[in-house]
Amino acid sequence: MFGIFNTTTIPALEQTLTFSQKRHELLAGNLANLDTPGYRAKDLDVGDFQNALAESIDLHKKAIDSGKPLTRDDIRSGPRDAMEQVVYHDESDVSLEQQVSEVAKNEHMHALAITTMRSQFALLRAAITERA
Fold this sequence. Notes:
Helix content: over 70%
Order of helices and strands: HHEHHEH
């Protein structure tokens, strides 16, 4: 069963959903502490995550081409590491507009991943049931 999912974008979408959930928690915390004196805003670096995910996808493609099997940990280690690196911003006050903007971007990334994953599952369902 795992092999079926490896040939789709589902593992990458799963990592994107996990990243967006963790990032949303941090951004929500920033908003909750908007008026807390000395609070340092926290975030996850989207660029680092995207680079780690791209490297993971490339590693997966190379493994498929060479016929070498990969484990789930091999595929997910890079993106998972990018999710653990919390970035602290300078000690200036937390900007409401900046945080709301980041929440909206993060929400969009999450919704896009969910929509794409739904499409992938619909395609798998159609293939399994042999319906178009």
